[in-house]
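REQUEST FORM: STRUCTURE PREDICTION
Request ID: SP-0412
Submitted by: Lab K.M.
Chain count: 1
Length (residues): 308
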Amino acid sequence: MEGRKSIGIIGMGWVGSSVAISILHSGIANELLLYDIKTEIAEGEAMDLSHGSSFYPTARVRATTIEEMMNTEAIVIAAGRGGKPGETRLQLLNENVIIAREIAFKLKNYQGIIVVVSNPVDVLTYFFQKFSGLPESRVIGTGTMLDTARLKEILGKHLHLDPRSVHAQVVGEHGDSDVVLWSGATAGGTDLRAWPGWTSEKEDTIAEQVRTAAQEIIKRKGATNHAIGLVTATLLKWILRGERRIITLSRVMPDALGLGKVAISLPAIVGTDGATEILIPKMSDTEREKLKTSIGVIQQAIASVDQG
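STATUS: Completed
RESULT:
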């Protein structure tokens, strides 16, 4: 693939390893650098992935330090503790903000794109941008990109369609206050609410399935990792190839909907310079109020940590 790049991953737990294999299969990197605070884990993952090099596009994989990642085009932040059964993403906050601060200080002069995957992703995206001082457009959280994919997968099952034929978005927090924009959802150019047999009850049920999807997986296997790995690798591909896709993802908004500075997921145009253009989608009055509530939830979480 023309223009293949060097990518770093910080944090080689469940998520970091899934991000790594997804990146390698995508062929977007000719060099993949791995770091974990437990050095032997990064070394072991690098060895294991390298042994499969006959089965993905040519790429060098090696364990390294954060400092050695400064010349990469993108770095994925997957460091931090994962969620426990019954625990919300925001309950992870205090421990993972400390980890984010330590990493961000080391990347203050970084010239590439930062993709934050660790949860709670919106709050950590906010703090990573604050601590690093990097431009808001170059510190991107995966945000509701995964929630949107989950929504489309569930809708595809209900409508007996390929999920890629369904157009719908989840905005706001990647968490319990996320907002499904039902008023703009379509399939094949047809408003979803005009689809034969569609009811508001289905909307409530599906929105709850999207909201609780991660917890259902964590209850069964202890973590969510494969889908977010695919999400992250695909996001990196679209960024590094400069495809200028419109994606629902998280970044610091200067003044989201007039409610102050916060990192939240809204549709954004992404390319080699990051998420530079934010779009405010058409929303019903109810959806707009729910989004304001979601923004408030994240601001409250930020305020609980940010003492100035």
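NOTES: The chain has eight helices and 14 strands.
Reviewed by: T.R.
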